[in-house]
Design the sequence.
């Protein structure tokens, strides 16, 4: 089945953005992106009826498209500005990348699972979304394109990968779910100087694990 975008989908997305506003997301740029990006086109067609529910859904390879609230919340914490260079680790469906691109960022994204990388790349090109995608291990970051204004990790890590710290600009920030005392917590690191990062903790969150290597 070929899916397309319709006024009905647009209405559902606007409603989703309103729900997220009611749940505490206030950044207009982020809410506009949620109201604009056709999430149903980032999911299997059988899940189309659920695409504008605030839930995570399977995308194959034991992975999920993140819950819209999580996407909106992480994007709000990242606060991407027009023209900023953003690195995302964990392309998955490509939905989060598309939201970042819709906020005006110049997006580079890395995925470790070949099939997901291939389908996301195809999707970006079909939907004419300007996101640059790489098949690789996000623990390495993407050195050739560094440094980045902002870095976002959409899988839960045990600690902040060293390469991501190195590839972040001074004054830039990294939003990443980190395991601490057996709890995944949403952390934002802001690079204050060459060797100094300021850490903020935004509470518990749920993500699939960030795994080493490619497959
Ligand atoms: N941002 C995605 C979320 C997908 S779930 C979306 O909007 O759909 C997290 C993704 O991170 C999965 O696709 C998983 O394969 C990927 N991932 C996990 N560890 C990774 C790593 N080391 N490098 C790159 N991607 C990784």
Sequence:
């Amino acid at each position: 089945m070929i899916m397309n975008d319709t006024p009905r989908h647009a209405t559902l997305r606007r409603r989703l953005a309103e729900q997220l506003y009611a749940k505490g997301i206030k950044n207009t740029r982020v809410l506009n992106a949620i109201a604009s990006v056709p999430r149903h086109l980032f999911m299997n067609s059988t899940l189309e009826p659920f695409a504008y529910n605030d839930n995570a859904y399977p995308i194959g390879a034991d992975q999920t498209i993140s819950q819209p609230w999580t996407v909106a919340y992480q994007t709000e914490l990242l606060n991407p500005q027009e023209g900023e260079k953003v690195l995302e680790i964990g392309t998955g469906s490509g939905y989060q990348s598309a939201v970042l691109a819709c906020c005006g960022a110049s997006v580079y994204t890395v995925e470790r699972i070949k099939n997901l990388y291939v389908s996301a790349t195809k999707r970006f090109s079909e939907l004419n979304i300007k996101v640059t995608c790489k098949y690789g291990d996000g623990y390495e970051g993407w050195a050739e394109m560094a440094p980045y204004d902002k870095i976002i990790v959409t899988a839960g890590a045990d600690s902040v990968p060293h390469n991501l710290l190195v590839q972040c600009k001074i004054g830039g920030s990294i939003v990443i779910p980190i395991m601490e005392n057996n709890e995944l917590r949403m952390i934002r690191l802001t690079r204050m100087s060459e060797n100094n990062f300021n850490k903020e903790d935004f509470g518990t969150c749920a993500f699939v694990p960030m795994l080493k290597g490619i497959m």
Q: What stands out?
A: Residues 189 and 199 are 5 Å apart (CA to CA). The longest helix spans residues 7-22.
